[in-house]
Structures are given as C-alpha cells and as structure tokens.
Amino acid sequence: MKTQYTLGRWTAGVALMMLMTIIASCARKPKTAQRGDIAEAAIASYVAPGDLDEYYVFYSGGQSGNVYVAGLPSMRHISTIPVFAPYPGNGYGFDNETKAMLGGYTWGDVHHPAMSKTNGDYDGRWLFVNDNANDRMARIDLRDFKTRQIFGPIPNVSGNHGSTFVTNNTEYILGASRFSIPLPKGAYASIEQYATAYKGVVSGMTVDPKTGQISMGWQILMPPFDWDLGASGKGPSDGWAFWTCYNSERATGKLEVTSTQRDRDYIAAINWKEAEKAVKQGKTKMLGGVKVIDPKETPGFVFLIPCSKSPHGVDVSPDGKYIVGSGKLQSITTVFNIDKIKVAIDKKDFTGNEDGIPILKYEDVKDAEVNVGLGPLHTQFDDQGYAYTSLFVESAVAKWKLGTWEVVDKIPVSYNIGHLAAIEGDTMHPQGKYLIALNKLSHGRHLSVGPSQPESSQLINITGEKMKLIYDAFTEPEPHYAQIIRASKLKPIEIYAKEENKNPNAIWDVKDANITRNGNNVVVKMTAVRSSYSPDKIEVNQGDHVTIHVTNIEQTTDELHGFGLVDYNINIVIDPGETKTVEFVADKPGVYAYYCTNFCSALHQEMQGYLLVKPKGGVASAAHSKTAAAAVAGGVE
Amino acid sequence: MTESWLEKTNRFFELPLQLRSRVLVLTAAVLLIPSFLFPLYQMTLYSNQFPDGLVLKIYSYTLEGGHSSNRDDLREINSLNHYIGMRPLLESDFSEFKWLPFGIGAIALLGLRAIAFGKMSKLVDLVVLFIYFALFSLWSFGHRLSQYGHVLDPTAAIKVKPFSPPIFGTQQIANFTVNNYPGPATYLIGASLVLMIAALMLSARQRT
Fold it and tell me: SS3 of B169, please?
C-alpha cells in the first residue's frame, strides 16, 4: 500500500512537472509560431540575383521626411525618395530648385502616402504624401521618382495628420487638421476657451489632372476635436469622405485621460461633392486666405457617426459599401453601411448635434461589430472578400470575412502593429497575395544596434486560408502607412533625354562651357561627363556671388555625377541629362577643390577642379605672403 | 578568214541584251533602293555593364547609335572611346556619307540606261564601274575605321596598341567584345552586283 501511495505521489509529481513544461512551452510558443515554415517562406520571398520584384512598396518615412521604396516579395530596400528634408545622398535640398521647394524647413513628418487614382484604382502617376509636422503636402512624380512639388504650409491646418487621401479620380487630395487651434492660424485664444474658440478643419486640395499640380481648394470648419485619419469613398460611397476623431470631449491638458471619458467618439461623413457645390455657390467666407464653408451655416453635407471611443483608422471596403471604423481601446471594429447612412440622413434621424453638425444614430447605420481583438487600428482588403485588421495592443492581424463578419484567422506580429498594407489594398480592386505589417516595435528581432532601434516590417502571405509570416525587414524611422502597387503599372525613365532638358542654362558640349562675369556676379555653365568637369577651374574674387549650372551630358543609365565643393558645404548630384544649379557667395578666400561625389568611372577620382577665390585687397603669392605664412604657422600652433 | 580579236570584241560589245538579262538588271537596280533603309554595317559592343550590347549602325548616308529611352549608344561609345584617345565618331567626319548615296543612285540609273540601250557595252560599263565602286567603298570604310583605331590621342588616359577593327568578325577590345558584321544594305548591294554579273553572262552565252 505504501509503495502504491508513493507511486501515486510520484505520478502526481511527474504530471505536475509535465504540466509546468507545457505551460513553459506555451509561454514561449509565440516565438516559434512567428518563425513560420522556414523553407516555404524562404522560397516565397526569394528573388534571385538579376530577377525583379513583382511589386513596389512605398513606405512613408515618418519624421525622416523621406519615402522609402522597396521591392516585394524580396522586401529589399531599393531607394529613398527625399521629400521634406535635405538628403545629401542625392544632393536634395542643396540645389536652387529643391532648396526653394523645401522653403527653409529641414524636416517633415511623412505619414500617409497615397497613390493617384483613376476610377478608384492606382494609376501609377503620382504619389502624394503629407507632412504632419509643418502642415504640407508633396507630390512625387513616379515617372522619375522625384519630389516635384511641396505645397504648404496649408493655411488653418495644425498637424496635417489626416491626409493624404485621394478621391477616386484624383479630383482632390483630402486632409484634416489633427490639432484644433484658434483660426486663422496666428490668432490667439487661451486654452480655457478651447471648446468654443478653437476649430478643426477638413481641407480639399485640387489636383491638376495633367500635371498633378496641387492647389488650395476649400476648407470645412469642424468642431475642435482631434481629427485623425480618413478615407475617401468609392462606388456607392463615391463623393463621400470619412474621418475619425478623438477628443470629442473637447478636453485639454493630459488627453490620455481627459479625452477618453466618453464611450464614443465620432466618424465624420463628409459629402465632398456637396462641399464643392457649396463653394461654387459662394457659400463660403475667407479665412486665412482660404474659402471656408461652415456646416452650421450651410448644413446638409457633414454628419457625425458615433464610433467606439478614440478611433484611429477608418477604411472603406473595395465595393464602397462598408465603412470600417476601429476604436483603438476596444476589441471590436465597427462596420457601417453607406446605404443605411444615406437613409438615416434622408429621414433626418438624428440624435443631436455638435456645433450644428447632426449626429446619426449608431444603431441605425451600423451593420456589424466584428470581434477582431484588442486595439484594432487599420483595415485593408484582399480580392477574396476578406478584410485584415491590425491589432496594436494584441500585436496581431485579424482576418475576417465581409458580410458574415466572422473572424477566420489571426496571426501574431512582432510587435505592436500600426498600419498594415495589402497590395492595392485600399482601392476598388485589391490584388491579394501579400500583406505587410508595419510594426512599431522590433524588440530584438534583429542584430542589436543599440537603443535606437529600427522599425519592423513583416511580409505575410495571404493567399491561403491561414496567413503565413514569410519575412522580417527593418526600416529606418518611421514608416506609418505604405502603398503597394503592381510593378507593371510604373514605367519610370532612367535618364533625362537631351531633347527633354529645357533648362536655359543647359549646355551639351564641353566646348560650350563658359564663365561670365557681370559686376560681382559670376555665372558658370559647366558640363560633367566621364571623367571631367568643364571648366576645371573657376577664378573668382572674394565676395563674388557665384552661380554654377552643371549639366550632366551623359545619356546612359546610372551615369550620375556629383559636384561637391570642399569646405563650402555644397553637394549636388546630377542625373544623366539633368541640369542643376547651385548659388553661393565666395566669402572664403583661398583655393577649394570641387570633385565628383558619385562614383562614375575608372577615373572618377580624377574628376575634379578648383575654385580659386582671390582674397580681397589683392593677391599675394602664397609662398611669399607673410600673412599666409603666419596663417600656416597659426594653424600649426 | 578569221575575225580579228578587236572585231570579236566589238561584236561582243554590240550584242543585244536578252529580255531575261534586262529583267535581271532591272531587279538589280530595284534591289539598290531598299539599301537606304538598312545599315551597311553594324558594330555591337558587349560587356558586363551592357549585356544587350552598345550598337552602332553605319548607313550609306549616316551614322546611328542604338537609341532607347534610357540610352544613347553613340554618345556612350564616344564617351568610352575618349579614354583610349579615339576621335569621337561624328557624321561630319565621314566623306563617304556624301558620295556613297550618289554612287548607289548612279549605279541604279546606269542599270536603267543599260536596259534602255539594250547593249552589252552598257552593261559591261556598269558592272566594271559597280565593282570599282564597291571595292573603293570597302577600302574607304575599312581605311576610315582603321584610322579611328590608329590615330589615337597620345595624351589619352589609357594607352592601347593601335588596332584595326575587323570588317567581319569579333574582337576583344579592353572589357568589350566587339562584333562587326556587314548589315542588310551590304548584302542587298552585293546581291545587286551578282545579278548584274549574271545578266551579263546570260547574254554573253547567246554568241555561240
């Protein structure tokens, strides 16, 4: 008996140990689960040397002010497009043109890139990006992957976060002000007057259909909430745009607490076609130089839909029928139906108003609450009728079916996913296949690089029933959203054809290189070609204003030339067939070399010249000059 | 009594051209027209950086590099050649481009003349002139290419041994594999000459 008892204890002990092992392995389980099937994943993301990726990914670069271009499925970073910040790598922000475009700003905060669209699908012409920091927008021409316009600061906007959202045929780029301020910008009101004297705005920027030029359209005065993210409608919701907001409490101070007291915030539904009509009918007033419509005075085109509190993303399904809003502090995402919204508006079935803007009844316009999981933020779509919602708190992506609202799969990601991007996943015709999880934290998923950690970007195969993680990539800070487009939709040029260069200062023959002087102004027309500059010396007087127009007369892919002027902080890179201009005052006397910065040829190192700046008060030969000798001696000491 | 050699020759020159000879000469003359549409000669330079090859085409009247939206081959070839001190290939440097089209036109017209006169002497003139013209043109181009390969700037960054590019074949020059071959226009002109010789022989046989 005693033995049996002991045996029983033994068995219990072993069972307990086994249980503990199971618990321990459970605790470690997510790590193995995230590794996926290695061989399959390797093949799925492998792009052999010389082969090309199938898709372009355009990542916003957050506070770097850049846009990053990667290939998919390889996830290889291919190039960086500087937008809001100088970028010495390709001389951006040093030549006259880009310097003027930057307008003295040295950074921007790129959050939401948006591809230009035709009939609700990406047309591959332009990429628009916002600047959350200095209230601007920019247009990147996808013909040459260059920033061609920076628009702004947009009047009346404070924190241009809720942009850029492009309407179905790129009629407008829509945006909203994240912060509310007294308007027009520059006006003062104490923080105690926040609820009444501060205002938000939604902006409609027009786009020239031929050139892509962004111009100011109109603005709509909104209650002083924090307007967050938007989406433009399509199909039955075409003509509408939607924005989430937080802090409908109109609170100030520590918003973490003060703005999270109510159970619901709102999604604003704005009929931009009606807004356009109101502007045409002159129902506007000028504010900060912009035609502004006040929905209190011109009702009927702005409505508020209650949404679970502190929502972040709002996304429209490919068929345009459903508007998906996610309250980031909840475990559900809410699906609203555009038909129900329209009916409710027609019936004027409102529960109240905010500053004269009618509030629709949640139950009237809601189709479903989908149990996606903790902290839903953004939703993307595939070609099979599924939606994918990122779960920040849970660090996962939930896959659910439109219509049945059933969550069919969930995959953990590493870690704290913000946005997610599927292939053409916000258009009328998503392409399925892959999804990228844009995670905020990478937490040691890479070789350690110290405390400043990169962001993590994970590739997920969504072709099967189960989502599969296939690749971890890391990007510089800090991608928020991304756009993924079929590579076949883009046909970038790789040189600027000679015939296309209309710059009046372009020269195409080394024999045409020249230096002209007009008073204190020295103008140099220079050629750069393997492996020399013409002229190879520029003589000026101290204090001269020097303008150098450099034309790269190459007509071959990848034959870039740089022009770096030593000690003068000048650095430009000129693409084949391009002309760039730098201007500076030659205030430092002496001799300064200029050289090619972008490795071009076997004799790249020899590609150099001299800027000779004659000192004020005449030239003394350096060898015999006492001052020069003294300067040298001084330097030695 | 036997004819003197001179009489025999004279009679040969007086021979009428048969219809089939005239048809052949007409065909030969017509073949010359499309020769303006095609290059006489094509050089293709392959390297690691240019797996598709830099292309240079020489027409009877001009020089043309391969041209795509991303490359101007003639400009590229000249850029590269300057390292070995070769003169840039310029259309204006080729006197051939002035007289060659004229010569080809003249041959075609002389063909029509031979058909109109219908006499062996005119065809003999034509064939002799044609052969002379063809050989002279070949020599002229060959000489010019060889000049490009031999008259190199002594101050060039890269010293290479003067060379004659092959008229027909492949050569390795530094990192480039250079393929030089006659183009369709050369074959058209060659075929034209062959047809004219054939026409001459056909009508010559009737004598016996």
Answer: strand
